[in-house]
Amino acid sequence: MRIIRRWWLKKGSQFIWSLVALAIAFAFYQTQGALINEVLYGASSIFRYDISVEQERLYGDRLVQQLENEINQLQIQNRQLREIVDYKNQNPNNIVTARIIGRSPDSWWQIVTIDAGANQGIEENNPVMAIGGLVGRITQVTPNTSRVLLISDYNSRVGATLNRTGYQGFIKGQSTQIGIMEFYEKVTDVEEGDLITTSNLSTLFPPDIPIGKVVSLNINRSPAPEAEIEFTAPVDFLNWVMVMTN
Q1: How far apart, in whole angstroms, are the C-alpha atoms of residue 244 and residue 241?
Q2: In terms of Cα–Cα distance, which of 82, 111, 106 is closest to 238?
Q3: Comparing C-alpha atoms, which of 214, 211, 219, 179 is closest to residue 194?
Q4: What DSSP state is assigned to residue 177?
Q5: pLDDT tens-digit series, residues 47-86
Q6: 11 pLDDT tier (thresholds 50, 70, 90)
């Protein structure tokens, strides 16, 4: 007994820790490390919680921004539709309202496609307007769609009048929101802000449709002065248009 007691005092603690180690190893083997995984999972829960909260906050911010953008777009479209309805009520006999359904990035300033055609009474060369003024004319018609040549196209030519003085000329597109008006004769009385409308001499467009306003003048241009005209209709951003039928 004395020998066993001496051995226990000397080796007992090591023996106990060895048993504990064997028990842990056996438990690890039996559970395939599940116990350790649970411990690690618990230790990492704080970090996971912080990441989850941050992800939810970022997602909420993006969702709010998306909803605000959609509300703004709906408000803009609603305002445009109200203006179109008011205009159509004033001109009920020959206005067809149509929506833009096609516009290529490669020809953004040249051609758009609308969702109205021959079945709605639309024909080639019908003028096309938006809130603010003229945007183009019909160049191709199918039963339910039409193509519109925009006034901003390089090939577009629109007879125009300087509304204040009656000076005549034509406007050609530049693939921007700015067109160039070439006068038929020398002019001396042109000012920035002057309103430009369709000419009473035009064979394609009715007179007095707003086109734009003068933003600059090159008086030294030969053979006649030129003026830069900013279109009053939003040619660069169209959702709805109005077609003037015969």
Answers
A1: 10
A2: 111
A3: 214
A4: S
A5: 555 555 566 666 666 666 666 666 665 555 566 556 555 6
A6: low
